[in-house]
Amino acid sequence: MNTLIKAFSALSDETRLSIVEQLMADGELPAGDLIEGKGMSGAAISRHLKVLREAGLIQQRAKGPQRLYSIRPEGLRAIAEWTISKREFWETSLDRLGAILERENTWPT
User: Which of 76, 30, 63, 26 is nearest to 49 (CA)?
Assistant: First the structure.
């Protein structure tokens, strides 16, 4: 559960979520490409990347002097599995809400 908490905490930040979405869409990228359009310094992006690495959501590899970042599927899988495990709860809750709303709409006024 600690891994899941770290993952959700890391993704709760708009910049970090944006980085993860960019890596999911574009694949492996150097840190410089992740800075573009975010209006932040390299040091700020570096701190965000560290949080994402420590949460197990991304990985880093060196290619000469360059650092390349990519998604760690295992990290995102933990979030997906947790979400799927809660599906029955949400479906049941939404069914109950629908039934309540339907009853309210059929009451005489």
Answer: 30
Tokens of 73: 């599927």
pLDDT digit string, tens, across residues 18-73: 999 999 999 999 988 988 777 888 899 999 999 999 999 999 999 999 999 999 99
> Tokens 């939404």 correspond to what residue?
94
- DSSP assignment string, 4-56: HHHHHHHHTSHHHHHHHHHHHHH-SEEHHHHHTTS---HHHHHHHHHHHHHTT
Residue in the block written with tokens 């999911």: 24
Q: What is the pTM of this model?
A: 0.76
- Distance CA(82)–CA(74), nearest Å, equals 13
